[in-house]
Structures are given as structure tokens and as C-alpha cells.
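Hey, can you fold this one?
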Amino acid sequence: MDDGVLAVTGATATGKTAVGIALAQRIGGEVISMDSRQVYRGMDIGTAKPTLAEREGVPHYGFDRVDPDERYSAGRFAREARRWIEAIRARARVPILVGGTGFFLRALTHPFFEEPPLDPARREALRAWLAQRETVTLRRWLRELDPASRWSAEGGGRQRLLRAIEVALLSGRSLSWWHAHALDSAQPLRPRVFVLERPADVLRRRIDVRVHDMIRSGLPDEVRGLLARRYTADDPGMSATGYAELVAWMNGQSTFEEAVTLTQAATRRYARRQRTWFRHQLPEDTIRLDAEQPVTKLVDEIVHQWNRTGR
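Sure. Predicted structure:
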């Protein structure tokens, strides 16, 4: 399985969802969400899942895989996505990966090893202890434990920092060592990758508007519902941008206005990290598109490039 797959990616708020759905409708495709937050059940508004109306007529995969207190790894995504891709292709339709989690895409293009078995009780105890440490401290420790890890550098997400430290301490080998020495039987996937790009100032404005739209659409009530189901700020899903800030507000740690402002700022930082990743980590034949164009023109260009390569 190495060709016949499209990927539409880019930073948050670049318009990937609309393009992915329109593209699927045009070429007879089915959409696989490539978003590490949309895997969580009950987290719909804050993760910008397409609505049921938007999904109508286009099969989607990758939503609602786990509860907010569960972890969902890039390795698991790759295993499940390969099964979805095979099934979609068996129906003579086109698999379209849509989302901004670059690490999920990389898990398909550069297959991972199976994570070494870690004792669940020891892992939970270590995770609880590490949760009390600041991110800057975690990065300093990881530089000692795993100097070759990309997550020891500035900008690495906290969840990935925690995972790398856990693996190093509980397995006795660094995550980089496991990547270098463990084998994966899966063949690398070679999707045709399209990146949607917008000017930084436009993206900032879209992000700020998007956060306000989520608030108006009921994100505070969605968070209250999750807390009522006994999920907490320490759960993996609840660390998502927007959820963490609103939980802090509901716990009296900030005002509502501060929570909104912090959500906007955190989303902008995330978008900057995404843009940096997409500049340096994608295949050389990646096609970058100006997302300021109308959706129809973007879809026309993607279809043209797709047909030109004979896929």
C-alpha cells in the first residue's frame, strides 16, 4: 500500500475540513481524520469536528475512538488508518487524510515500532508525579535521558515529552534508541500531500474568530458536561486547547475573559508550531496551496495535480 492516497493538511484554521469534504464529493473519496483531538468522544465543539450535516454523503473515519481519560497514540492511529485505507480502496474509492496533526501523518510515512511494554501501575504513578513538574523542567530532564529526542527541544508538546520520559525511565532505553533499533513490518505510505497555507496575520485573525465561534456554539457547556462525567484536567483529552483553559476558569483559577484570551493565544502558538513542522518535515514533492482562494478553486487544483500524476 504505497500510492492512491491523498492528504490535505495545514495549520489549524486554514480551512482543511471544507476542502476535504468538497474534494471527497468531487472524486468519490472518503475522509480519514488526521487530528489527535478529534479522536475523543464528547469533545466535538472544541476540536472542530465537522457537523453531522457537513459529513452527510461523505463517510468519515477517525472520530470518537477513545474517551477523554484514555491515550491515543500516533502508532495506534497508523494501524487503524491503514485498515481504513485498505477498506476504502477495496471499494474503489479514494482515501483522503484530512487534519493538522503532522505526527499522525509521519506515523504513516515513517512507520513506528511497537512501543515497549510498560507496567501500567508504574506508568500511572510516574505520570502523576511528572504532572506536577513544569514543562521546562521536563525538557531539561529529557535532554539528559534522551539527547537525540526531537521532543527535548523547545516547542515539543507536553504529552510527547511525558511519553519520552516514561519510556526512558521505565524501559531503561531512550525513545530514540527504540526508534533506531525496533522494526515495524508496515510499509511506508506515500500519499500525495497538499498543504493549505494562509498569511500569518490572516491566520491569527481566523483563530481569534474561531475561538469566539466555539464559545457561542456551546463549548463551555460541552466542558461542563465532561466535568459532570468525572473527567478531570489531568486526563489526556482534557489537556486540549480550549478545554484546559475553560476547566481552569470553572475551577476559579481565571476569569472567563482570561480563559478565552488564553485559548486564543495557545491556539496561535500551536499554529506556529504546525507551520514550522510543515515547512521542514514533509516530502519534497508536497504541494503548497494558497488557502485564501475559494474552496472550489483549491479543489480544482488538487484534482488537477492528482490527475496529472496518474493516480
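The chain has two domains: 6-112+185-308, 120-181. Let me know if you want another pass with a different chain boundary.
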